[in-house]
Structures
1.
Amino acid sequence: MADTDITLDARGLSRAYRRGSEEILALDGVTLSIKRGEFVSFMGPSGSGKTTLVNLLGCLDNPSAGELHLAGKKIFGEGKRLSERELTVVRREVFGYIFQNFYLVPSLTVRENVAVPLAFYRKPGAEAEVDRLLKLLGIEHRANHLPREISGGEMQRVAIARALVNRPEILLADEPTGNLDSRRSTEIGEVLQELNRSSGLTIVMVTHDPGLAKLGGRHIEMRDGRAYEG
Ligand SMILES: Nc1ncnc2c1ncn2[C@@H]1O[C@H](COP(=O)(O)OP(=O)(O)OP(=O)(O)O)[C@@H](O)[C@H]1O
């Protein structure tokens, strides 16, 4: 495997949280590599460290110990810590994020929500990407609706389109179907699978749903802050 195939490389990543006088080791030395174009699912009991790990992989949090490399570049590690400004650039240029709670702006239409990232940063062709994504995700007929006028499944499609509008290399999805019924959940899973297959988008997903996890090519089980390849 050539190094250039590896997009995310975690080495001995740990994260401790302080709660009063107690220290909680939420992540206990996780080492794993994710290749470009992989669809990786993380499962495991509540509190096993899934969100903590994907937040670190997505450069949303700093580890207490260990290293993280992104496309061969050290992001965190011995003597190395990107500035908040550098991290912001990495977050918006490399990653798209989706979460259980969609986080749509209630006063903006579907189209405006998808275009929100363009107000801060825009890759070439991003404007045309809004229309392409509305169509691809089957929500173009909802383009002028407000979030409160559409279903939960449609809301998550809007959030996916927004996450993709700047053509990220990696989509991070934390419980993307946690608020959806099983039919909508399967539909969103299939959308993610299709994005991974057709465009080679790398997907890193946390889920409690075994059916959804199966859609990814690779499963990792978290237990007590450690990762076990399934
Ligand atoms: N900000 C925080 N402060 C203190 N403890 C935290 C914090 N965030 C997470 N923890 C603790 O770290 C451990 C791992 O949490 P994490 O959210 O990563 O688990 P999870 O596997 O994603 O759980 P869930 O499936 O319930 O979302 C838990 O014991 C949790 O209580």
2.
Amino acid sequence: MSTLEYSGMTVRYGHGAGAHVAVQGVDLTVASGGVHGLVGESGSGKSTLAAAAVGLVRPAAGSIRLDGTDIVGHSASARTARRRVQLIFQDPFSALDPRMPVGASIAEAMRAAGRRRTRAEKTRRVEELLGLVHIDPARAEDLPAAFSGGQRQRVTIARALAADPDVIIADEITSALDVSVQGVVLNLLRELRAELNLTILFISHNLAVVRYVCDTVSVMRHGRIVESGDTGSVLSAPRDPYTRELVAAVPVMGERFDWGEVS
Ligand SMILES: Nc1ncnc2c1ncn2[C@@H]1O[C@H](COP(=O)(O)OP(=O)(O)OP(=O)(O)O)[C@@H](O)[C@H]1O
């Protein structure tokens, strides 16, 4: 069980007259074991919702709960529960320390999550995590520069998994990648979801990608959710005029996509 639930979420940047409301009264539930998409134009507040769940921004109002436990506050229980939510960013190039071998990077994430392990256990777990994302465990000593963009994004996924999360928030994780490797990362996410029973909030401006990976979807505009529902229904028969505009802007929306296999 790992249901992520935002209610009445409001986030402002800045203070006083210069304050900007980035997210306004958002209610959003990501069902346990489900993949929920979040789409909307640039600046609509998608990344702000993601940042709030991992403590990078402080909401002005509202709550975020994981299986009913608050994950926003400063209490010990909130901090512990927050570790069960891991964020993966868009850019696999800046996400990894260029001077640190990828295995060490993954081990560091395990430490940060408070996992105490012996050196041998750590090595074994790093190998296991690299294997999970289809990277040869023998490459643990390699620096990020030795990997392609798609492989680096897989390493950042392994690093997120090092904390043994229940929830992954994937923020535009394929948009910095060549189209040819996007499918590999998307298929990996689908595979991991099934294997590890992850709950996923999947942020993307790419509706074809959202249709491929998400069970349900919410459409954001100007900090509010304008429409939510099953991905198929929302994208095939949008009720909200703004969603209709978004869908109409993607000419291939009705076609099936073949994103290939994870290699
Ligand atoms: N650190 C910040 N300080 C001030 N304003 C910010 C900050 N981060 C985001 N904003 C503003 O908040 C609004 C929501 O931004 P956010 O990044 O959440 O949108 P988004 O939908 O994720 O956009 P994109 O798809 O471009 O990433 C935007 O108007 C943005 O300019």
